[in-house]
Amino acid sequence: MRRSLATLPLGALLLTGLVACGSSSDDPEAPSADPTAVEGVTVTGDFGKEPEVEVKDLDVTKPVHGEVIAGDGAEVTEESNVNYRFHIVYGSNGEQVADNYAEPRAVALDLAEQPEPIIDALVGTHVGSRVVLALPVTDLFGKEGAAQYGLDTKDDLVMVMDLVSEVEPPLDGPEGEAVEPPDDAPTVVEDDGAVTGIDFGNAPEKPSGELEVITLVEGSGEPVAEGDDVTVDYFGVVYGGKQPFDESYSAEPVTFGLTPGGLIDGWVEGLAGVKAGSRVMLVVPAEKGYGDRANGNIPANSTLVFVIDVLGVNL
């Protein structure tokens, strides 16, 4: 169902992300702030909003970090997965390198997959904290990696990170109210909740030619919208076929950005509005799938049938 891999923005490459636990500076109970938590760097502004970063006489030979705003949420550990905002500038002149405060939502940061300077800076802080980290570019990437991303290998980076919230784990499977499908719908074959096949015994010999969205379990979680990151398990077959051309139930759930051009139109249109916890069947005509071209073991002009468990939205 995926058309192509998306190019990650620099910020995601650097660190591979509402109700915040931090408070506004206008709040009389706001946590105390230390705008100069790292010598040579001054960070001001409200938590959750793009900070102002002033760099003056910064001189670091190794990673240095500090807490600008102390949060009061869950403590961050090496196993934590948090949603965060980031603002990154060069240490020499304060020129912006990357930023995601203008994006619609924070992005996930899995601490277990981060380089040591990131782990050291964040572990022991709390959700709701604003953390500043200054370090030589090469301490994060090495010389070759920094050059690959077009970064000045002789410069430093200053990274401001707002820890917005904990990432909720995906559901283990569909959760909600079972819905009786139409009598002529293909039948889901499953083993202990995992989809293992789709039986077309009761289905019409030829598909309708329309995009069909058949709800099998109605979840009650967040509805999917175009542009969301959706975590799913899925099983896909060519209409009338017996073997899947792709599936995730035998492996791990996957996360896709629900964007036109990134996924086939049948997924983008068919999953819009579906709530987390739902299981749906999509019958996707060729024009909303791969059209008149073959794709791997999918013949040209194929109608595709998917069973999809929506396990999370923007986790």
Automatic annotation (TrEMBL):
Record SUPFAM superfamilies: FKBP-like (SSF54534)
Family classification: Belongs to the FKBP-type PPIase family.
Domain of life: Bacteria
Position of the signal peptide: 1-25
Name used for this protein in its record: Peptidyl-prolyl cis-trans isomerase
Molecular function terms, GO-annotated: peptidyl-prolyl cis-trans isomerase activity
Iron-sulfur found in the keyword field: no
Region (Disordered): 168-192
PANTHER family: 39 KDA FK506-BINDING NUCLEAR PROTEIN, FKBP-TYPE PEPTIDYL-PROLYL CIS-TRANS ISOMERASE FKPA
Organism: Nocardioides gansuensis
Top class in the EC scheme: isomerase
Domain PPIase FKBP-type residue range list: 227-314
The keyword Isomerase appears for this protein: yes
InterPro entries found in the cross-reference section: PPIase_dom_sf (IPR046357), PPIase_FKBP_dom (IPR001179)
Sorted UniProt keywords: Isomerase, Rotamase, Signal
Catalytic activities: [protein]-peptidylproline (omega=180) = [protein]-peptidylproline (omega=0)
This enzyme's EC code(s): 5.2.1.8
Record's compositionally biased regions (Acidic residues): 174-192
